Amino acid sequence: MRLVLTSDTHVPARARQLPAELLAAVDEADVVLHAGDWVDEATLDLLAARSRRLVAVHGNNDGPGLRARLPEVARADVGGVRFAVVHETGAARGREERCARRFPDADVLVFGHSHIPWDTSAPGGPRLLNPGSPTDRRRQPHRTFMTAVAADGELAEVTLHRL
After folding, report:
1. Which residues pair with 145 in a beta bridge?
2. Whole-prediction pTM value?
3. What are the φ/ψ torsions at residue 109 (nearest 5 degrees)?
4. Longest Cα pair distance anywhere in the chain, in angstroms?
5. Which residues make beta-bridge pairs with 148?
6. Are the C-beta atoms of residues 125 and 103 closer than 8 Å to each other?
7. pLDDT of 110-130, one tens digit each?
């Protein structure tokens, strides 16, 4: 199953619309995982309409409308891989151990908030993936999102796309 991982879209605060490259990837994906900070409901509606399956959470910049529609934590089994999705995981220091305790049943944790791409594994715990932001690079050299493939209980071909 082809996946798109994204977070921190911040439309229209940081961009007027989602990048064409991200939307093209969404159109090809079997599952889209969004780790929050949508900012507007129109972006949620757009991705929900274009995605075959959307697994999403709200973030700290999402108002009451988005919070009413999206959970703080989402879980999904995709291709035999157990995913958890959350917006915030706290400080980078100690993140792997903290997330291993919080999400002991997840194989992969997708998170956002920092706009900083991240790919590590917690000892005995989940693989942690932050796709960055496709609209706001903050202190990073590029705006980003990720793609991956989940099949037969394995996550493969994790790719960071620079926009």
Report:
1. 161
2. 0.96
3. -115, 120
4. 41
5. 3
6. yes
7. 999 999 999 999 888 899 999
